[in-house]
């Protein structure tokens, strides 16, 4: 890479040469990876080890470079200008006696850090070059050309603990209270049961009797049971009417239903 | 290492046979398809004898995990036939048993032998065939004797594997209802408003009140 | 259903070491990728010791056309580097990396785990998103843990594929790493007057010069 700073002495005096030099400069600025990279490039002109570099001199080189670029109307990215401002500040710090009231970092500290940054960047450059010079997969050494397919077999293992089991069981047993639709057989009186009961009892009643008095014992109070027994007994009574065994009557809507054994004609 | 005299009058000597063998080995390994002797000849340094190198290489791999094999008129390195089983990768995934399966399993454990109708009666919801099948496949339940009632329904009982998995000597060692209550396990109330169908619907989903279990932890 | 060998003292004895070596050989030959010892353990019969088998296998291939190489915590078979000239046909043209990408890669490798702000601090210029993306796409870098500093910035580290590509056993084997460390050039040295970590505070803010870096890429 050409060092633009080297042509500083024979700076463009005009004409074609000036334009050519200006073009070269544009190309070179574009070639830099930021101000730190430019500084690193400029530092090489000092032809000393990076550790012995004069930061003051480097700052001057950089500022001169930026001035020249400006003079040639080269557009510089903002961070090049930020670096220029910072280096100008650094330069003044290095040249002027330290202000005892300023507790900020000294010019020497700032210069040392810049030197460290340059050395580190240089070191990373070299490391990158060494890395890329290594033998590389697919270029110098190679992987298997005909890989064989590895079949994937997925297997699921189910787990459960004894606690899961106990909790599961407990959950079911406590759920009983919450079952809304399960037929509770204990509270169910079937029509068959009602028929049996009515057939047995009807003979004793000679006169009209309230159907509700035929409900089985213990089914009258619990509303659930009462409902079931009443429905079954009513259905059974209709069965018996159909069979011609009893008469049934209701005086008005919602009035009690009465039944009576049908008098057997043969009984006289 | 014997250096053979070049067969033809080459300007350069062919590499030693051991070196040629290395080369053939590398080419067979890295090439995406099987390689003919003609191609090997073209790729190896002038004067090489890949056919001979192949003989040596083939011999070297005898009894190894891979073999140098002839495929048509070309050569390749392949897995030894007896090691094909290694070309399978088994991944085991651990999953928690669904709530439906846990409950069904619990009922079978506590009430065995028990029929499917009885399980449904106790759970208050239907038991899907998949749930029973899963437990059978896990070998945690098996068929017991048929019930001597109309329809002669099959019953389910838990297995030795079940006892092993849950660390039980016998199913009778499962804590009874009284103990469950004492342990606070029966005080659990399902979330209010939980309809019956719901628990069935999410049968295979992750247990929605999974974290409720923490309530029970001692 | 297959009954797996019990985890504890196995009913089946592990195969002899020579057989285990064959198996490891077959598995490594069968894939273009590197295989971890953990995966080998999973694929070999129960009770096998692939780590030991690998030691034997590595020795067996010394000086051959292919070599058993360690890549991070995995192993692979690769052709001997001195035979690369035979493989012109296999050479994969890799996209030429920009100077920015190469430097960024080196910085990540030598300074990992490293944040984007730290990379920018070292290079003295913004790192374009495209550069990082390219390295991620190559699978040479991946995200490391977030840095426990304000903004919790992501960090980058190099991958197993990176080690494989550059033939490194581990990131510790990076060329010149020791010397760089001894020279203090891998230290995170904050600019004077700035506390450590402060530079990372604005890490997750949008970088105003984000796309500036791209200007410089060739």
Structural account:
- The complex is a heterotrimer, with one copy of chain A (268 residues) and two copies of chain B (218 residues).
- Chain A has 268 residues and is mostly helical.
- Chain A contains eight helices and four strands.
- In chain A, strand 3 (246-250) and strand 4 (257-261) form a beta hairpin.
- In chain A, helix 2 (35-43) crosses helix 5.
- Residues 1-13 and 178-182 of chain A have low confidence and may be disordered.
- In chain B, helix 1 (17-30) packs across helix 3 and helix 4 (99-111) packs across helix 6 (129-137).
- Chain B has two domains: 15-82, Winged helix-like DNA-binding domain superfamily/Winged helix DNA-binding domain (Arc Repressor Mutant, subunit A, Orthogonal Bundle); 99-199, Arc Repressor Mutant, subunit A, CATH 1.10.10.
- With 218 residues, chain B is α+β, with helices and mostly antiparallel strands.
- In chain B, strand 2 (66-71) and strand 3 form a beta hairpin.
- Chain B is rod-shaped.
- Chain B has helices at residues 17-30, 37-43, 50-60, 99-111, 116-123, 129-137, 160-166, 177-182, 196-201, and strands at 35-36, 66-71, 74-79, 88-96, 114-115, 141-143, 155-158.
- Chain B has nine helices and seven strands, in the order H-E-H-H-E-E-E-H-E-H-H-E-E-H-H-H.
- Helix content of chain B is 37%, strand content 15%.
- A three-stranded antiparallel β-sheet of chain B has the order 1-3-2.
- Strand 1 of chain A pairs parallel with strand 4 (88-96) of chain B.
């Amino acid at each position: 890479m050409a060092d633009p700073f080297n042509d500083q002495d024979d700076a463009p005096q005009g004409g074609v040469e000036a334009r050519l030099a200006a073009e070269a400069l544009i190309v070179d600025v574009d070639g830099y990876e930021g101000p730190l990279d430019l500084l690193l490039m400029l530092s090489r002109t000092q032809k000393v080890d990076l550790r012995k570099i004069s930061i003051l001199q480097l700052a001057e080189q950089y500022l001169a470079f930026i001035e020249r670029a400006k003079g040639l109307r080269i557009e510089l990215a903002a961070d090049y200008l930020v670096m220029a401002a910072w280096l100008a500040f650094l330069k003044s710090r290095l040249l002027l006696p330290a202000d005892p009231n300023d507790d900020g970092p000294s010019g020497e500290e700032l210069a040392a850090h810049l030197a460290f940054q340059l050395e580190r960047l240089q070191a990373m450059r070299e490391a990158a070059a060494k890395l890329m010079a290594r033998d590389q997969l697919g270029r110098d050494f190679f992987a298997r050309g005909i890989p064989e397919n590895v079949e994937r077999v997925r297997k699921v293992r189910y787990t459960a603990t004894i606690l899961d089991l106990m909790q599961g069981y407990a959950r079911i047993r406590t759920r009983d209270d919450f079952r809304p639709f399960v037929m509770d057989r204990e509270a169910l009186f079937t029509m068959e049961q009602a028929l049996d009961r009515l057939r047995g009892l009807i003979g004793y009643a000679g006169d009209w009797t309230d159907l509700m008095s035929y409900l089985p014992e213990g089914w009258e109070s619990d509303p659930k049971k009462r409902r079931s027994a009443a429905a079954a007994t009513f259905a059974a009574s209709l069965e018996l009417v159909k069979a011609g065994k009893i008469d049934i009557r209701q005086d008005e809507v919602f009035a009690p239903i009465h039944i009576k054994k049908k008098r057997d004609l043969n009984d006289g | 290492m014997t250096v053979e005299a070049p067969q033809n009058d080459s300007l350069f000597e062919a590499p030693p046979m051991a070196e040629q063998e290395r080369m053939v080995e590398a080419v067979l390994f890295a090439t995406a398809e099987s390689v003919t002797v003609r191609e090997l000849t073209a790729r190896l340094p002038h004067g090489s004898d890949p056919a001979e190198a192949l003989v040596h290489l083939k011999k070297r791999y005898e009894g190894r995990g891979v073999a140098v094999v002839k495929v048509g008129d070309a050569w390749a390195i392949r897995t030894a036939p007896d090691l094909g089983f290694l070309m399978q990768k088994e991944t085991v995934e651990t999953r928690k048993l669904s709530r439906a399966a846990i409950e069904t399993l619990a009922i079978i454990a506590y009430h065995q032998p028990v029929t499917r109708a009885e399980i449904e009666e106790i759970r208050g919801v239907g038991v899907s065939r998949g749930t029973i099948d899963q437990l059978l496949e896990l070998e945690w339940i098996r068929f017991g004797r048929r019930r001597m009632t109309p329809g002669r329904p099959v019953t389910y009982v838990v297995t030795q594997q079940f006892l092993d998995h849950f660390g039980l000597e016998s199913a009778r060692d499962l804590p009874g209802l009284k103990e469950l209550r004492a342990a606070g396990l029966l005080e659990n109330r399902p979330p209010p408003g939980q309809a019956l169908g719901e628990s069935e619907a999410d049968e295979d989903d992750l247990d929605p009140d999974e974290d409720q279990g923490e309530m029970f932890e001692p």
